[in-house]
Amino acid sequence: MLKWLERWLPRIFGCHCRADRSFFFHGKQFPICARCTGEMIGILAGIPVFFLMPAPPAWVLALFLLPLVADGCIQRLTAYESTNLRRLVTGILFGYGIMMLFLLSTAATLRMGYRVGSMWNG
Predict the structure, then answer these.
(1) Which of 3, 67, 88, 105 is the most exposed place for a label (fewest CB within 10 A)?
(2) Angular region, 33: left φ>0, alpha ψ -120 to 50, beta rest
(3) Cβ atoms within 10 A of the Cβ of 62, count?
């Protein structure tokens, strides 16, 4: 299982796996960078939270995406260098926001399909 994760996580996330932007545990580099690790944590946390608590409005969730975009763009366009902790936190916010938006849109689509199907079947 661990070999599978090491092989496929970077591909799933499109991760560059740079050592200077990754966490290490017992001298071994994580299979994905700090930002992608945060995204994975946010995505995985978003699933049970969606079913256990009411979701924030979609516009609030969209705001959760902005810190990662801003941090990445500022780092790309200037001499600013983000830290792994900042990459982790912005990744968590992004992963949580994107997963919650996905689940909200999926639930809305299912509700709409159910209503349309109910109208056709009388």
Answers:
(1) 3
(2) beta
(3) 14
